Amino acid sequence: MTLVAAVACGLALAAFDDVDAIETPEARAVAQSVTAAELASWGRTHGDAGALIMAARLLAEVPVRPGEGEGGEPILTPGRLLDEAAALSAGNQPLMDAIDRLREPLTRGVQSSPFGAGPVFTVKQLRAREAWAFELDARRGEILRVAAIGDGDTDIDLIIRDSRGSILCRDGYGDHYPVCTVSSGAGGKMRVNIVNRGDVWTSIQVLSN
């Protein structure tokens, strides 16, 4: 199975109760960010600087907005991915030239994007085996997409429940980048639970539309 296909399958693990719900540009942005994270992980595993450069290009298209409450700098950024790519390039000049070309527009930020205002992000540090929960208001008639992008040290579980406590989506398949896609239906409160399944603390960047 290809990387893109694997990510698509992950995004398909959803609970849809309203087939008329629309997918907003911001929801698509969450999906593209997860694709970038998966591609970057593959690049690290295979020592492939080109994969990290491509991941940075994907991520550079996505604007993000800080959420309320606990914050911090994003742990997954185009600049950091390019730093990793440079370290892996071993002085390969064509790769370094590609990195330099991509760095220049990054200093100006996202000038235009097909992803609207972009997803909201929050950064959280979780101790070993620690769980964290928060509520959000899902907008009526829109697909809700939530991703928890970890730093790669531990496996992370992601669960979304409705206001009655019923599970709408669970991604607990032992990876670092769980993502849930659900139909908001009539809208309203939803509860998101994120669990660090590892024996060490980890940083998690949560994205949602």
Q: Which sheet architecture does the biggest sheet show?
A: 5 strands, mixed
Count of alpha/pi helices:
5
* Residue-averaged pLDDT: 85
Pattern of helices and strands? HHHEHHEEEEEEEE
Choose one word for the global shape.
globular
Number of domains: 1
> In the CATH classification, which architecture applies?
Sandwich
Strand runs, count: 9
How far the N terminus sits from the C terminus, by CA atoms, comes to 28 Å
Question: What is the CATH class name?
Answer: Mainly Beta
Q: Roughly what fraction of the amino acids lie in strands?
A: 25-35%
CATH fold-level topology: Jelly Rolls
Q: Unreliable segments (pLDDT under 50, ≥5 consecutive)? A: 1-13
Strand order of the largest sheet: 1-2-9-4-7
Helix share bin: 25-40%
Can you characterise this structure?
The chain has 209 residues and is of the alpha+beta class. It has one domain (3-208): Sandwich (Jelly Rolls). The chain starts with a helix and ends with a strand. The chain contains five helices and nine strands; from the N terminus they run αααβααββββββββ. Helix content is 33%, strand content 30%. Helix 1 crosses helix 2 (25-46), helix 2 packs antiparallel against helix 3 (49-60) and helix 3 runs antiparallel to helix 4 (78-88). The chain is globular, with a radius of gyration of 17 Å.
